[in-house]
Structure formats: C-alpha cells, structure tokens
C-alpha cells in the first residue's frame, strides 16, 4: 500500500481557478527567457544571452543570403549605448505582416520549406525573443519602393508607421535593439565575441560580405580559412579539404594536443557542443584512415591531435535546445508524416563521402599520408608509454576524488541535462585560505572549488606521462573530466581565482600553460575565465563600495565622505559574507580569448620555456617603476 503523503491544506486551498494564468507571447518570453536564449549573463561569456540575441537577428539575414537574396550584411555595435543594428539587403519582411513577424510566436516564413531551404531558424521564435528581451526594439522593412517601421518596448508595440512610399533605397530589413538592463543587469559587449561570430558567418557563406563597425569581412576559401586562422599549433601537413553536396570539412593534425578538436556547424549555426554530425565525422574519419593504413590502431589514437572544421546542411534540423549548440538529428531530412524516414542516415552519408574523397586523397598525396601515419604512430607510442601509469593514475584519482578535500564539488554539472547546467562553475584557487572564503559563500548547487597547494608544475616542456605522475595535475583534469576530450566536461565555466599579485599572476600563467599544452580546446571553446575581485573597499557608516581599479577607487572617494579605505592583498582577506557579492549575479569574469594570430608554441616557448636573452631583454625594456616602487610589466 502506498504511503499517504501529508496534505498541505494551505497549498490546496490556494490552488483555484485564478491560479491558472495565461501569458501573452512576449510576456512568456520575458518570464522564461532561459527557454529561448539559454542563460542571461552579463556578456563575459561567449554564450551569454546578449550574443544569442545578435545571432538570432543575423541568422535571419543569413537565411536571406543562402536563399539567393542580398550579398551584404551590415552589423553595428555601439558599445557605449549598448545598441546593436543589423541591416541586410534581402527581400525585406513582407510589409503587411511586419509587426506580426517580430511579435507573434509561431508566425513566420520558416515553416514554408519552399521559401527557406536548410535554414537555421525554424520555429518562428528568434526575432520575437530579441524583441521581448529588449528595452528598445525597432524593425524596418524596405520592399519594392515602400517601407514600414515599427518600434517596441519590452515586446510591446509603441509605434507603427504603416506602409509608406519610399524614394530610393535597396530592399531588405533593418533591426535595431538594446537588450533590457532589467533582465541582463549591467551587461557589456565584448568586441572579440561579436567579431568571431562575424568571421564564422563569412567562413560558412562564401560570396557573403559583412561589415562590422565599418570593417569589411570576407572569406575566399571558406572552412579552409577558418581552420588556418584558428590553428594554435603548426600543422603537420597541408590541410585536407573535402566538399560534396551538403557536406564540407577541412582538417589536419597538429603536435602537442591530447585529443581531437572541432569547429562544427549545422546550416551555419556553430554547434559548440557538437552533436550527431560531429560524432558521424569522428567515427567515419577513424574508420577510413584505419582501413587505409591497414593497422589496428584505436580510433582515439588515429584522431589524437586532429583539428577539424566541419559543416553540414540539412532540412529542418533538430537541436537539443533553442540556442542550437548541439545537433540531435540522425537523418538529412525530417521524418515523414507517418513517422517513417527514407532520408539517408547522417552517419552513413558522412561515411560514404569520406570513403571516396579521403581515401583517394591519401593515395594521391603520399607526403600527406606519410606525415599522418608518422603522427599516428607517435600517438600509439605515447599511448603505450602511458597506458600503465594512466590506469594507476586514474584509479588513484578516483580514490582521491572520493576523499579529496581539495575538491568541493557542486550538485549541477555541465554534462547533465539539468536546466541550470550552463551555470556550472569551478573555481581554481591558490591555497586553503582563498578557497575557504569561496567555499563558504558559493552556491553549492552550481559552484565547485578546487584548491591548489601552491604553484602547479610548469608543463611547457613535460610529457603527458609527467602529467599523470603529478598528483595535483592528475586530480585537476579528473575533476574537469577532460582526459578524453571536453565532450564530457563537468563545468561550463572554469574560473582561475588567484590573488592580484606577482605570485597570483604566475599561477595563472602556469594553469593556462597546462590547458594550452594538453587541452587547448578548453580555451578555444570559451570555457576558461579569470575571476576579478576588488582591490579596494571604500566605506563609511552609510555606504560601502568595492573598487576593482584605481579609477574606481578615486571616484568612490569623491562620492563618500569620511571614507575608510581597505586594500585587499589576497582573496583570503575577503570574508565569506563579502565574497558572496563577488561570485553571485554581479560576478566579474575576464574571458581568456585566443586571437586569430595567436601561436601557442611560439608564445609558450617565449614566456614559459627556458630563460633566454630575448625574454630578458623584453622584460628589461618593458619594466615601469610606479610611484609606490612596485614593478609592473607593461
């Protein structure tokens, strides 16, 4: 017999007819923004909501281009006003349905496959979400000598010009918006994030010209350009490029990388979490290469060090969320009405293409095949060298993790299906003092803490065997769950939280060296951050202000009479009660971003390799002696 649950009579009485609430389209989006754009964020992370808003608007412009209308898109970001504008030169939204197209859910042309083939946006949601989540949203359509302009505030119509005659001007659509500070807080745009998105659109749409804040962006070689511009290490052979039908890929092997890494896309959408198309490529690539070299290497050995850019175009793709970061489709086209599917399986389609093109290429280019075989043989040797110690290290890591006081885990992880998975964060701190304050003030659901014992080992010149032998590094990559790649990464945000002094800076460099040497995709995919904590506290009896720079300190002193100033020398000096202010909704994070021209090998060799005269001269030439006689590198 089932146990009877205690009856909450108050809750029972409160559940009446007026408890059933109907939300209008725009109000529902504002009430539940996570359903439409993932997390909100303040702009520090590349997947924060404000960038999703930009993407949704540009996606519509891209759909016009891929449909054969308009070869140019203009993007403007006013950083001071926090306003974005996107102008395309396509067909323009039909004027009679302009207001409905941007304010009514389940309204749009994406449902008509004859109008938009292999589009990114399919659910008639994107632009409506931008409208609902903006304090100001303006859309203007230009079409065959006429135009119409509509303005909104928080999704509510405030102005409609109606259809008017227009003298001159090209067809297309202009969208301007300012994300709502009530929802996104004190947000800011990071130019590099927007620029990366603009570049990706150009790589994936040859023939398209984009202008971002007046600068022209265009790609002649598509995914080849993307691959070459994002390689952090020197390629071991000329990149292989394959394009057939709705499949396109470019790839090569590099040295100094523990796993394979991907820049994968579906219909132009950057699938940062991969999905079925990426899995299909990984499986097909290993199979074709294994058949070519006729040796029984494992797929992991064949793929180790592979860097690949990949794009497929399919009809009505199914993603795992509205933010479209992971593909779930298994076929090139959706199921039939009766549930059957006569469209090719995605993995079969990819395998057939690689069987033809990659096998032929390796037979015709022996120098590439030799370089690839040499790299795979090197991978196999490394695998055998670390096989024994890896097993011991993993077992030790598991045992240590169960009783490891250095890792204070959280409940929600990135590799789960939890609704708060994007919030999952791990703070890597120096010493017990700093970790103690964070641990006592953290959100135990989404925030974990890993405490270092001091300065970790410099990994620039060591092998993966040495990593497994080093207990602390072994525990760290076990905690992150990235030993076999970042597909099962446990935390979306990996935050380095060290003191703002010379030792703290050195620890940051040592950790970044470790990630860049062995897990560069962790940084490439935007998961690594530096935590900002205040340098000063300025307060009197009425008011307390925390200042992150000298400029903020000076401003606070002017605003606060009879102020007491405290200089924080380390994280351990900040009480847990105060720390809550710095790792909560107002947390300041500096993302670690790799620029296009960044060369990992050269940079790490210069800064983290053996001491050289060149580095000595650089330091001496860039030293500045400040008034307080502290030494700073410019």
Describe how the helices and strands are arranged.
Elements: H1 9-14, H2 25-31, H3 34-37, H4 49-66, E1 72-78, E2 83-88, H5 98-103, H6 126-132, E3 134-143, E4 146-153, E5 156-160, E6 164-165, E7 172-179, H7 181-184, H8 191-204, E8 209-212, E9 215-217, H9 223-230, E10 240-244, E11 247-253, E12 261-266, E13 269-270, H10 276-293, H11 299-303, E14 306-312, H12 346-364, H13 366-402, E15 407-408, E16 425-430, H14 431-441, E17 447-452, H15 464-469, H16 471-480, E18 493-497, H17 502-518, H18 520-524, E19 528-532, E20 536-539, E21 544-547, H19 550-559, E22 564-567, H20 576-579, E23 588-591, H21 600-608, H22 613-622, E24 623-625, E25 631-633
Parallel strand pairs: 1-8, 12-14, 16-17, 16-18, 18-19
Antiparallel strand pairs: 1-2, 2-7, 3-4, 3-7, 4-5, 4-6, 8-9, 10-11, 11-14, 12-13, 15-17, 19-23, 20-21, 20-22, 24-25
